[in-house]
Amino acid sequence: MATMDAVLINKTGGTEVLEYKTDVPIPTLKGGEVLLKNEYIGVNFIDTYYRKGLYPITNFPYIPGSESAGTVAAVANAGNLYGLKVGDKVVIHHSSTYASYMAIPAARAVRIPERLSTSSAAAVSLQAMTAWSLVHEAHPVKAGEWVLVTAAAGGTGRWVVQMAKDLGATVIATCSTAKLDLVRQLGADHVIDYNKQDYVKLVLDLTSGNGVAAVFDSLGKSTFDTSLQCVARKGSMVSFGNTTGTVEPVDIMRISGKSIKLVRPRISAYIATREELNATAAAVFKFLERDGVKIDIFKVYPLRDAAQAQDDLESG
């Protein structure tokens, strides 16, 4: 049986549990699947959640990863392939992407437009589609609204800033001292250094004490309570990440005073059908064509350096 390179884990823990192997069997295809030869693999915080055990893994060894882009190398002999053929460039949101090859459901693969590079597709698709779902479904942002984005220099945060601005919102963004200029370049109207400034006070001052229509918070445990204080009456608290840990159980009465909507979204629940995937991908790809939209790739790592990539991600 032919083999491939892959990164796998046999237990949860730190990045030391990530093992680079060169003798992993290439998967065989079932009906409705295509064999994807990965060219670029996205690195996302959700990968670290599985590695640490925050999200459960049912079987070991486990290949981590949640998105990749590459070329269709083979197709199954049966099942709906949604028109995919050998040689097509596609992007996929799927588990176990830290590998040279993947057997993936054709229903979850999206053709990459010619105008978008394979590397850009792998770098932005999961984060950009997540951000799109946040500002269009978790809290549909309206022109004239004030919104707050925490960790705005992060992968998804950058897209939330740009998309919320495109929808006409006034964006307040928090980030570390080193990334203030970057976030301003993304279009944020007000940038707060969360290492040095009291962002609750500043948000309330900027909004004349009213608070924001929505907070998009990816940090989780460390910022949930403070972000909640920034939400306006009848506003939305959208907590979509666990970078600093899982949010503690919430007493529902805490959000009753201002009739706040508390949302804990996950992209797999928003993009569960082929129709939802096609619609979201088309909207995001169209957005990426706009003038001024910034696609940043921090660094490209060889697969063997997956542990270093996750270390760098978690260190900011």
TrEMBL record:
The keyword Cell membrane does not apply. Pfam families: ADH_N, ADH_zinc_N. It comes from the Eukaryota. Residues 13-316 form the Enoyl reductase (ER) domain. GO terms for molecular function: mRNA 3'-UTR AU-rich region binding; NADPH binding; quinone reductase (NADPH) activity; zinc ion binding. CDD domains: QOR2 (cd05286). Keywords: NADP, Oxidoreductase. GO terms for cellular component: cytosol. InterPro entries: ADH-like_C, ADH-like_N, ER, GroES-like_sf, NAD(P)-bd_dom_sf, QOR-like, Quin_OxRdtase/zeta-crystal_CS. This is Probable quinone oxidoreductase.
